[in-house]
Amino acid sequence: MFYWSGILTNCVSKKLNHAVLLVGYNDSAAVPYWTIKNSWSRLWGESGYIRIAKGSNQCLVKEEVTTSLVLRSRHTPEPTTTTTTSAPGPSPSYFVQMSCTDAACSVGCENATFPTGQCLLTTSGGSAIVTCGAETLTEEVFLTSTHCSGPSVRSSVSLNKCNRLLRGSVEFFCGSSSTARLADVDRQRRYQPYHSRHRRL
Predict the structure, then answer these.
(1) Percent helix, strand and coil across the chain, each rounded to 5?
(2) Where are the domains positioned within the chain?
(3) How would you class 102 by CB atoms within 10 Å of its CB: exposed for 0-12, middle for 13-18, buried for 19 or more?
(4) Which long-range contacts (CB under 8 A, 24 or more apart) does 112-115 make?
(5) Which CATH number fits the domain 7-60, given the four candidates 3.40.50.1820, 3.30.365.10, 2.40.50.170, 3.10.580.10?
(6) Using CB atoms within 10 A of its CB, is residue 94 exposed (0-12), middle (13-18) or buried (19+)?
(7) Would 35 disulfide with which of 24, 39, 68, 105, CB 3.0-4.6 Å?
């Protein structure tokens, strides 16, 4: 993509080809825009960043969105008097990550089983702790640590739902919903590195 500077208002895309990081926005500008960090080095665009107009899905920016929450501390918060009315999810000791080569979680699939609540090494060189809830799998990723310490990013993904990736797809299973799938998992791959959806920046 040829881009040097300014707010891009005419980005026509038919498909996505790599991930970028949305880092800011400006709703006060004459043309409101998103600020996005690209992965092509500081020599590209505005020192590695691009500004695109908001509200018109420039460069398909609204497609395949993943959000995260940056944690400030790993300390347990003080107890509150707030009560939760939703039922707690299962507390399985393992989860299954099914990675497939197609976009519909049906072709070229491989299952891998990992323990929950333990520090896992990721394929990107960091580490993660994964927990299962009633409807979501939550991962706390430590991008720069192999020991699950320091700054982390937390995100959640729906269980039992096929998630399209730029190349292929992935689906996660936990607890009673994955009992049948757990029986089919190749036990020799049980402790391979976990493929976190987060990449080192």
Answers:
(1) 10, 35, 60
(2) 7-60, 90-189
(3) middle
(4) 112/185, 112/186, 112/189, 112/190, 112/192, 112/194, 112/195, 113/182, 113/185, 113/187, 113/189, 113/190, 114/190, 114/191, 114/194
(5) 2.40.50.170
(6) middle
(7) 24
- 50: how many CB neighbours lie within 10 A of its CB? 25
**Tokens representing 116?**
């929950």
CB atoms within 10 A of CB 95: 23
Distance separating alpha carbons of residues 32 and 42, to the nearest angstrom: 23
Nearest Cα to 116, choosing from 198, 182, 184?
A: 182
DSSP 122: B
Q: Which two tokens stand for residue 34?
A: 């998103």
- Tens of pLDDT along the chain (201 residues) come to 677 788 878 887 777 767 777 778 888 889 988 888 877 777 778 888 888 889 888 887 777 666 554 444 444 445 555 444 444 444 558 888 888 999 889 888 888 888 889 898 887 778 889 999 888 989 888 888 889 998 888 888 888 999 888 788 889 888 643 443 444 443 333 344 556 555 443
Tokens of 50: 């691009």
